[in-house]
Design goal:
The protein has about 650 residues and is α+β, with helices and mostly antiparallel strands. It is about 40% helix and about 10% strand. A hairpin with a 2-residue loop joins strand 11 (about 520) and strand 12. Mean pLDDT is about 80; it is low at about 65-90, about 95-115, about 120-125 and about 640-650.
Length: about 650
């Protein structure tokens, strides 16, 4: 499909070559919205508007010759109306455009019925470009490279400085950024940061307000430019550093407020040493509306148990000591002896009876429980991105045509225009992405050229004495001044899903569409969160990464994660299955540290139905050195959101 620019170029070329009739035929075949754009375009629209006067006069004459009198009357009427640019329908955009720009109503003169000759036209000439004064930009300062440990998220836990891959990339800690890249436009920075070769997760760029949930430039990122076209590497890094503040918070549940601390445990060591943590992620838990676990827990007025993204439990475990105590008495669900299998697996890491592991268990997300409850879910970013594009185009049309419709005496033409615009925009929009509309009192004077109060079908006095169904004064709680009463009445008039609003004189205009991305949720759907992957959120990623770092900092031998505690507590199948995802996260951490192929770091025990099931990671000297030097990232790319390349194709 040709772009708007290509369409205008094609029509300009035909007109310049003297083929005005051919240009007009091409115009008539365009979709509604493109006809509108061409009609109000300078140069091309002027020529076509003049040509149509002759065109419809010729059609009327031919119809008379063919004794098609009804058709002749119609075309003659079209020709007359075209003198004030009202017919064909979209020429009303040209005739009233000047009116729309003013604040006062302008009477449209009654056109004379005679047909004017078609003026001769010269090929269109483009105006020479205007000279722009050169702006002296401040000198770009050298980039201040920092060590990895200075680039971490401040999680409120000093011992858990999870790293930012985006900032580590800028500082050259795992990829050597091109030294020539220093000052770029925000769009070019985004292209650099989202380049798959640079391995920066889109979720982190959303958390840091570089991208919004549609993976477009975030409004905060645009605003920080303060009108400038570019931002330096140092400026970008400073912005990312500010956005890290409060982005991730990890809080220990106080000992007296542990969730279900007396539940049955897979072993008493875990029960006696259990600790619980809550993880708060900007862009996730604050969307919740329901309370469940930790509902009475409040760290600050903004950080509570009711808006946590995920929570977990950890405890100290001595796997080899516990194995020795139970050896020879370990059977799977089929009754098979599994002692030797467990012993061999633990021996692969040379684990002895004094080695202590931190075990992760009870990982759960009330946020995801609410998202997955009946009728909820994440909205589809791809659908919403397409919808946003349609609605932005629709809003531009509404801004153009509303003032024209309000002052146009041809109600039938206006009615058809509204219907065509609505049909063109909304026929292809599915009901699963609801659209709402808005019209503000301040819009009315711009549209009508009259004071807002004068546009209503009731006076302030009439509104003051209105009664509701119960016989009480309807606006008794509204201040008694004229404007407040009028606005309250106006709000009631525009309430509802209708895209149209009726002015005092019966003229219908269009409301602007509310762009869904401006809302926290779309309908009852949730925005995707920073840990969203493919179709859902990976709530295991953050707890596993934080606990691996915590176990290392605490001097533990290693860390263990397995599903057995969830099974014992009667966890649903989907909860148990998520522990496999958590086990895989350990391998991703090793891959990031460059140790993915090293032997003697992990071992896995499966399908024994015992407390020993799960993945074990041992902190070898090599692993400890890698963590000390590189840290552990808060994010690791878990797959694209499936819209990273989509917007560029729209």
């Amino acid at each position: 499909m040709a772009t708007r620019k290509e369409i205008l170029s094609d029509l300009s070329g035909k007109i310049a070559g003297g083929n005005i009739s051919e240009a007009y035929r091409s115009f008539e075949e365009l979709p509604v919205v493109d006809q509108i754009a061409v009609s109000i375009a300078p140069g091309v629209g002027d020529v076509l508007a003049a040509y149509e006067v002759k065109e419809f006069g010729s059609r009327a004459k031919k119809n008379v010759q063919d004794k098609d009198y009804l058709g002749a009357a119609g075309n003659t009427g079209l020709q007359v109306l075209s003198g004030v640019s009202l017919i064909p329908l979209f020429r009303l955009l040209r005739g009233a455009k000047a009116v729309a720009k003013g604040s006062k109503a302008v009477d449209v003169p009654t056109p004379k019925p005679e047909v004017k000759p078609t003026p001769k036209t010269e090929p269109l000439q483009l105006a020479p470009p205007k000279e722009v004064a050169k702006i002296e930009l401040p000198e770009v300062q050298p980039f201040n490279t920092q060590p990895a440990k200075e680039l971490a998220y401040q999680t409120t836990q000093d011992y858990l400085p999870l790293q930012s891959k985006a900032r580590k990339f800028l500082h050259g800690h795992y990829k050597k950024i091109d030294p020539e890249i220093n000052e770029l436009s925000p769009e070019d920075w985004v292209k650099t940061l989202t380049n798959p070769n640079n391995e920066i997760p889109l979720g982190e760029l959303r958390l840091l307000n570089v991208l919004d949930e549609m993976n477009e430039l975030h409004p905060k990122f645009i605003k920080v430019l303060a009108g400038e076209n570019t931002i330096s590497k140092q400026g970008l890094d400073n912005y990312l550093s500010r956005q890290q503040t409060d982005a991730l918070q990890i809080r220990n549940a106080p000992p007296g407020k542990l969730q279900s601390s007396d539940t049955e445990f897979v072993n008493n060591d875990l029960k006696n040493t259990q600790q619980q943590k809550l993880y708060h992620v900007r862009g996730a838990g604050e969307q919740r509306t329901q309370g469940l676990h930790y509902r009475n827990l409040e760290f600050t007025p903004e950080i509570t148990g009711n808006n946590a993204y995920v929570f977990d439990g950890t405890g100290i475990n001595y796997p080899m000591e516990r194995y020795t105590a139970r050896a020879g008495n370990l059977f799977n669900k089929n009754g098979d002896e599994v002692s030797d299998y467990i012993n061999d697996a633990l021996k692969k890491l040379d684990i002895n009876e004094t080695d202590n592991f931190s075990s992760i268990f009870r990982v759960q997300s009330d946020f995801l429980n609410e998202v997955s409850s009946e009728g909820n879910g994440f909205f589809d970013p791809k659908k919403v991105a397409v919808l946003t594009k349609k609605l932005l185009r629709y809003n531009n049309l509404v801004d153009e045509i509303n003032p024209i419709i309000a002052k146009n005496p041809n109600r039938e033409a206006s009615r058809k225009l509204i219907n065509d615009v609505l049909k063109d925009t909304f026929d292809s929009i599915k009901d699963d992405v609801p659209v709402s509309f808005r019209l503000d009192p301040e819009d009315i004077p711009r549209i009508t050229g009259k004071p807002f109060i004068d546009s209503l079908n009731k006076t302030p006095e009439d509104i003051f004495y209105m009664f509701n169904a119960s016989g009480k004064q309807k606006y008794i709680d509204v201040p008694g001044d004229d404007l407040s009463l009028s606005k309250a009445y106006f709000e009631d008039l525009i309430t509802g899903r209708s895209a149209e609003y009726v002015l005092k004189d019966g003229v219908r205009i269009l409301k602007r569409a509310i762009i869904p991305k401006a809302d926290a949720n779309i309908g009852n759907k949730f925005k995707i969160d920073p840990y969203f992957e493919k179709t859902t959120s990976n709530e295991m990623k953050l707890p596993v990464r934080a606990n691996v770092l915590e176990a290392y900092k605490a001097g533990k031998t290693g860390i263990h994660i397995g599903p057995r505690q969830a099974v014992m507590e009667g966890g649903r199948k989907n909860i148990v299955e998520k522990y496999t995802r958590g086990e895989k996260e350990i391998q991703k951490i090793l891959n990031e540290l460059g140790l993915g192929n090293k032997k003697g770091l992990t071992t896995r025990i499966t399908d024994t139905g015992t407390e020993f099931d799960g993945t074990y990671l041992k902190f070898t000297d090599e692993l400890k050195k890698a963590i000390e030097e590189q840290g552990i990232n808060a994010f690791k790319d878990g797959g694209p959101v499936d819209i990273d390349n989509m917007l560029s194709k729209l």
